[in-house]
Amino acid sequence: MATFVNGIFLLQISIRIAKVYSFHSDSQRMIYINHINVSKYPLFVCLLLSFFIASAQEVDRQQLLRDIQYLSSDELGGRKPLTEGNQLAAQFIRDRFKSLGLTSQFKSYTQRVPLMGNRGNGEALGEGTNITAFIPGQDSDRLIVITAHYDHLGTTEAGAIFNGADDNASGTAALLALAEYFTKNKPRASIILAALDAEEMGLQGAKALVRDFPFSLEHVLVNVNMDMISRNVKSELYAAGTLHYPHLKPALENAAKGAKVTLKFGHDEPGIGADDWTKASDHAAFHDKGVPFVYFGVEDHPDYHKETDTFENIDPEFYYEAVRLIIRCVEKLDEALIP
Ligand SMILES: [Zn+2]
Fold first, then answer.
1. pTM (2 decimals)?
2. With 160 labelled, which of 84, 134, 289, 320 sits at a CA distance of 20 to 30 A?
3. Pair (274, 191) in one structural domain
4. Residue 23 belongs to domain spanning
5. C-alpha of residue 304 to centroid of ligand 1, in Å
C-alpha cells in the first residue's frame, strides 16, 4: 500500500513538473508554483523550486567554456580572415544559429565582406564573412544590434598560433550564449546578432554591416559590442560609451547591482589617447553613423595580441559572471529603451 501511495505521489509530482516546463515564461512558472498548496506538499514545492531555479539559469556555463575553448583552439589557427580556420569558426557560428532555429536577413546567415589591405585602404584581398542572425522582438520594429568579432591574427611567420582566446573568442562565445538566452526569453526590441570578420584589419566587417545594414540605421536603439571579456585581475568589466550616450547609463547601473563582476564606466573621454576606446573596436562603425553604443571589454593584459592569449589563460569564473552581467545589461537596456 505504501509503495502504491508513493507511486501516486511521484506521478503527481511528474505531472506538475511537466506542467511547470510547459509554460513559456519564468513569470508564468512562478505564478503556477505560488498557487500550489505549500502546507499540503512542502517537499514537492521545494523540489519544484529547485527545478525552477535550475531551469532559470540563464547561461549554460559548460557550453560557454566549450565554445570559447573550441574557437581559440589550434585547429582554428588564429582565425585570420581568408584562412581555413576563419571559415571553420564562421561555420561553427552558422551551425549554432541554425540549431537555435534563428533566421537572418542574409542568405545562409552570411554577409560577404570585400576585404582590402592596409586596414581597408589598400588593394582587394578577397571576401570575408560576417555571420548574422535575427531574433524578432515582442512588439516593435526597433532593434538592438549585438556584435563580437570572431577573427584574429592567424600565426607568426615562424608558424606560432595567435589563439586569441580573450581577443575575441570570448566575445564570440558570449554572442552564442546571448543568442540562446534571447531565443528563450523574448526581448521587446528585435535583436540582430552579428559575428563580425576582419576587425583586426581595421573594423572591415563592422563597416560592411553598417554600410549594407538590412534596416534603416535609425531603427537601431543601441549597438552592444563585446571584445575581450574573459579575464581581469581586479574582476572589473568596462562599459564604455556612456560619456557619448549618457541616456544608456542608468539601465547599465541598474543591471550591475548585485553582480559578481564590477561594472566600470569610462575609457570614452576624448583626449586621453589610447585609453579612449571609442574607436577601439567594431562599435566605432556604429558610432560614426550616430548609433549609440555600449562596448564591453577589459583592460589590456600582458597576453594581449600575443601567442599566450590562450584558453588556459582566461579566468572561467570571471568570464561566466561577465557574460551573465552583459545579458542583464541588454535586458535592462531593452526595458529602458522601449518602456
Ligand atoms: Zn579584439
1. 0.85
2. 320
3. yes
4. 2-55
5. 9
Is 173 in the same domain as 39?
Answer: no
Separation of CA 338 and ligand 1 centre (Å) = 30
Q: Of 312, 317, 320, 318, nearest to 299 (Cα)?
A: 318
Expressed in angstroms and rounded, the spacing between residue 46 Cα and the centre of ligand 1 is 45
User: If you measure from the C-alpha of residue 93 to the centroid of ligand 1, how many angstroms do you get, rounded to a whole number?
Assistant: 17
Burial tier of 39 (Cβ tally within 10 Å: 0-12, 13-18, 19+): exposed
Q: Ligand 1 centre from 68 Cα, in Å?
A: 14
Q: Mark whether 27 and 111 lie in a shared domain.
A: no
> 311 and 242: one domain?
yes
Rounded CA Rg of the chain? 22
CA 29 / ligand 1 centre spacing (Å): 40
How many angstroms does the Cα of residue 13 sit away from the middle of ligand 1?
A: 49
H-helix or E-strand containing 129?
strand 124-135
Q: Is 180 found in the same domain as 36?
A: no
One digit per residue, the tens of pLDDT, for the chain of length 339 reads 555 555 555 556 555 655 555 544 454 555 555 565 555 666 655 555 555 544 456 899 999 999 999 999 999 999 999 999 999 999 999 999 999 999 999 999 999 999 999 999 999 999 999 999 999 999 778 999 999 999 999 999 999 999 999 999 999 999 999 999 999 999 999 999 999 999 999 999 999 999 999 999 999 999 999 999 999 999 999 999 999 999 999 999 999 999 999 999 999 999 999 999 999 999 999 999 999 999 999 999 999 999 999 999 999 999 999 999 999 999 999 999 998
Number of neighbouring beta carbons within 10 Å of residue 243? 15
Compute CA 164 distance to the chain's CA centroid, rounded to the nearest angstrom: 17
Ligand 1 center from residue 186 Cα (angstroms): 28
CA–centroid distance, residue 194 to ligand 1 (Å):
14
**Looking at 26, 55, 84, which one is the last position of a domain?**
55
Q: What is the CATH number of the domain that holds 311?
A: 3.40.630.10
Q: How far is the CA of 60 from the centre of ligand 1 (A)?
A: 24
- Interval between CA 206 and ligand 1 midpoint (Å): 12
Quote the CA–CA distance of 158 and 173 in Å, as a whole number: 28
Contact 170, 225 (CB under 8 A): no
Domain count for the chain: 2
Residues 49 and 120 in one domain: no
